[in-house]
Amino acid sequence: IYDLSKVKFKMQIDELDVLKISVGQEVSVRADALEGVEMTGHITNISLEANTSGGVTEYPVTVELDEVGDLLPGMNVSATIVLKEEKDALCIPVDALMRGDVVYMKNGEGEETTPEELAAGVPEGFHEVKVTVGISSDSYVQILSGLKPEDEVYVPRAEMTDMYGLMMGTDDYYYEEEEDVE
What we know:
This protein is mainly beta and 182 residues long. It has helices at residues 115-119, 163-168; strands at residues 8-14, 26-31, 38-46, 51-53, 56-65, 77-81, 90-93, 102-106, 126-130, 132-136, 140-145, 153-156, 172-175, 177-178.
């Protein structure tokens, strides 16, 4: 008999991240079997007993779901713990960032890529812009200064994961978007 009034699961948190989380912190949960459904939970325990395997140390963290919905015992879930969040942030794909603080911005009307920029690897039709970055995720990085929301930046196709760019079949693609960074 299952008691679905309190559904809990354990997740493993890397030693590099475990000090960044705390009991009571919100967790976003998705189940593979419940497409498009996002549930919330909270961290109820961070174990001090670490598990080490292959040189990697992880700590078991217990998460209790706030509401179960259609989730059944044994279903696989994925959990995301937001460590830091910015609302209405200007973000670009991490692949657009060159050398840590440089992006290639599309030239404006009448602007040309200089021979020096071309020799330095800047693509034709773009120029180099130094930016100040903020928080980042695996996919996006926040831009604090150096770009405006209407600016278009270069993202190398070799590392492109955007399905729209793949369908268009272009050698390069441009990207502009405002999005929250988790």
